[in-house]
Amino acid sequence: MHFSFFPTLLSAVLPLAVSAASYRFNITVPDASREKRDSFNDARFTYYDITTGVFNITVPDASREKRDSFNDARFTYYDITTGVTACGWTFSNNAEVVALNSQQFVSGFPGPSCGNRIRIDANGKSMDAVIVDECPGCPYAGLDLTEGLFSQFADLDAGVITGSWDYI
């Protein structure tokens, strides 16, 4: 795959003095990554070949996990209004957003987990949500839902429910 960018855009991103009209990029994108992602926050600049004028950028393969469903997952709820999420955003308790367990949440600010869309299935209902926070107390595959999202699946009095989820 090759992309051309205007020199002014590239010079703002990479401090290189190249006087060509456009730049040429070799971007390696594994098939699985292309299928499941439309942005590549984890792309890595690997090297610039001065003899050919080509920037080489590698995008790691999306993890196998990102294509799996997570069954028998534990879902709880929390008050998201207490501050800024791990992704740096604020929300109301009615937002359809979740906190992902620490084992699966990819760190960074904002981390690559931030903004990923998921589909949650529980108690015969299905809802879409966005990952916006980290849940240190959740087990692997567990999610902490906003009060509003949790109430779409069960009464808040239930406290904990199980279900499945997957990336969409």
From TrEMBL:
Keyword vocabulary terms for this entry: Signal
Top-rank taxon, per record: Eukaryota
Signal peptide feature range: 1-20
Protein name as catalogued: Uncharacterized protein
